[in-house]
Amino acid sequence: MTDKHFEQIGWLGFILIVSAYFFVTIKLLDINSALYHLTNLAGALCMVINARHNKTNPLFWLNIVWSLIALLGLLQLT
Q1: Of 10, 14, 35, which is closest to residue 24 (Cα–Cα)?
Q2: What is the pLDDT of residue 78?
Q3: Domain containing 17: what range?
Q4: How high is the mean pLDDT in each 10-residue block of the chain (78 residues)?
Q5: Where are the alpha helices (DSSP H) in the chain?
Q6: Total tally of structural domains belonging to the chain
Q7: Smallest Cα–Cα separation from 70: which of 36, 29, 19, 24?
Q8: Single pTM value for the model
Q9: How far is residue 38's CA from residue 69's CA, in Å, rounded to a whole number?
Q10: Opening angle at CA 65, ends 59 and 4, nearest 5
């Protein structure tokens, strides 16, 4: 994969995380929905890939934690 691919993955992660928050804010998504947590999880994992490639450790660890929080949210739904 090229640097451009990793950048695109990072932008996808950004869009997913911001979209999830935006849709909860305008009440199109419920904060307790699986879709909200899955969107956050997918976005955070994209950001993890981008951060690891770019060697940005704070962003990497922030998104590892964000992923774990999203997983916890999903587990609480079951």
Answers
A1: 35
A2: 76
A3: 3-77
A4: 96 98 97 96 98 97 98 93
A5: 3-25, 34-54, 57-77
A6: 1
A7: 36
A8: 0.93
A9: 11
A10: 35
